[in-house]
Design goal:
With 174 residues, this protein is an all-beta fold. Helices cover 3% and strands 56% of the residues. It has a 6-stranded antiparallel sheet with strand order 3-2-1-4-7-8. The protein has a 4-stranded antiparallel sheet with strand order 5-6-11-12, with no helix packed on it. Strand 5 and strand 6 form a beta hairpin. It is elongated.
Length: 174
């Protein structure tokens, strides 16, 4: 899958004092996901919260109160997926993260109900926030005030619209 071929970013935070254990890229090799460098161990007196985000170049910000978030700049072609597992007690095996989509996919289908109508579609543009911050703690977005236009379907010669519905494209959005 995409996480195996491209990796992802992961962070671990000690719940008792909100200190970060690691915040690094995770790679996949020979059936194992791993964080390069040191070995990490569970603290004796606290649980740990784990966070993951793809694409791996996104930054997981850890606030002083231990809350994790991701600031994301919109790109209608990219997907953003994330994972959270809170309050994990000491264990010897790997911590499993279940990734979910953090954006919505918009699909556009076009058709006409009248076979006598001749029309062509040349472009579709979506106006949306150009970015935002996702909060892992309450699974919510705070969107930027700035809007941007994202043209995700452009054909200089147009696409004929007929009585049969045709998918013309899709885009990721908040």
């Amino acid at each position: 899958g995409i996480l195996q071929s491209n990796g992802f970013k992961a962070a671990a935070v000690i719940d008792a004092d909100n200190s970060t254990i690691f915040n690094k890229a995770v790679t996949y090799n020979n059936g194992v996901y791993s964080v390069s460098g040191e070995h990490y161990y569970f603290p004796n007196e606290s649980t740990v919260s784990f966070y993951g985000v793809y694409p791996a170049d996104e930054v997981i910000a850890i606030a002083d109160d231990g809350k994790a978030s991701v600031a994301y700049v919109h790109n209608s072609d990219d997907d953003l997926i994330g994972a959270k597992k809170s309050g994990v007690a000491s264990q010897s095996d790997a911590v499993a993260l279940e990734f979910t989509h953090l954006l919505s996919q918009i699909s556009i289908n076009v058709k006409t109900d009248d076979a006598n109508v001749i029309c062509k579609l040349y472009s579709i543009t979506i106006s949306d926030a150009d970015g935002g911050t996702y909060s892992f703690s309450d699974d919510s977005w705070t969107l930027s005030e700035t809007k941007a236009d994202y043209a995700f379907f452009v054909k200089t010669d147009g696409q004929a619209v007929t009585t049969t519905a045709a998918a013309v494209g899709s885009a990721m959005s908040f």
